[in-house]
Design goal:
The protein is α/β, with parallel strands linked by helices. The chain has nine helices and ten strands. The strands form two sheets. It has an eight-stranded parallel β-barrel, surrounded by four helices. Strands 8-9 form a two-stranded antiparallel ribbon. α2 runs parallel beside α3 and α4 crosses α5.
């Protein structure tokens, strides 16, 4: 199983354009590039960032700050959708420039936890349109099981994958736990459509932590995933509050590498 670190892990600690050097220094060969603000979606920034890559580091996926526009891609307003689509296309361009194969996508929010049934077919139709746009940039959409978004249960993720064959999946360990599900339930729901696994640990107090510093059994997760014949990219997506020194992040990476090598 290949292990990487998202540039999101360096947020407020290291500027996005300096993350590649940090990752190389840690011996990390794979990353997900997190673009966290509008200026980072621009072509000039994406091209400059791509110029910092070399053969030692592979960009598996790209991720945007979803709350800025992804939900609006599903708006009933044509104008709102069109504006959001322009931003979406910029992120797809960035992904293409960086050599990414996937776009980690949160999609529509569900902050109020609506009790109304989710019309999966209606969402699938819109997702299909969005996936077609991404395809023109050589990118596949990997929908993430975010606990505050629409597709936060294994049942809905399975239904969405069935209704929209163009989609892939990103399974996030912490979001699975916060939604009240074993992450392996999501793996079983999406099967070989999972291309990325985001890993952050969770403590007994339900706080996030670096992998290896909480209560989640990553060795069990890795073994069970391998038993299913699935080999997604495993990417640490840490929060800035979960560590002080870069060496702590490197130790967590080494911890997961050790497990991956063992299983």
């Amino acid at each position: 199983m290949k292990i990487g670190i998202s540039t999101a892990s360096f947020f407020t600690k290291v500027p996005t354009e300096s993350c590649f050097a940090e990752l190389r220094g840690m011996g990390v060969g794979m990353t997900e590039v997190f673009l966290s603000t509008y200026s980072e979606y621009e072509k000039g920034f994406a091209d400059a960032l791509a110029a910092r890559l070399d053969g030692t580091l592979k960009v598996h996926s790209v991720h945007a700050l979803s709350s800025q526009f992804e939900g609006e891609l599903f708006s009933p307003s044509n104008r709102v959708r069109d504006d959001a689509e322009q931003l979406f296309r910029k992120v797809c361009y960035a992904g293409n420039a960086l050599g990414a194969r996937y776009y980690t996508f949160h999609g529509p929010l569900d902050l109020k936890k609506s009790s109304a049934d989710t019309d999966v077919n209606a969402y699938a139709e819109r997702f299909s349109y969005i996936a077609d746009i991404a395809k023109t940039y050589g990118i596949k959409i990997a929908v993430e099981n975010v606990h505050y978004c629409k597709f936060a249960s294994p049942e809905l993720m399975r239904a969405l994958m069935n209704a929209c064959p163009a989609l892939c999946a990103t399974i996030d360990v912490k979001h699975s736990i916060f939604s009240g599900y074993d992450p392996l339930k999501f793996i079983d729901a999406v099967g070989d459509r999972v291309v990325t696994v985001h890993v952050t640990d969770v403590t007994k107090d339900e706080a996030t932590a670096l992998p290896g510093k909480g209560r989640y059994d990553f060795e069990h997760f890795f073994r069970e995933t391998e038993k299913r014949g699935i080999e997604p990219a495993v990417i640490i997506e840490a929060y800035a509050r979960d560590f002080t020194y870069i060496e702590e992040l490197k130790a967590s990476y080494d911890y997961l590498r050790g497990i991956a090598d063992k299983v």
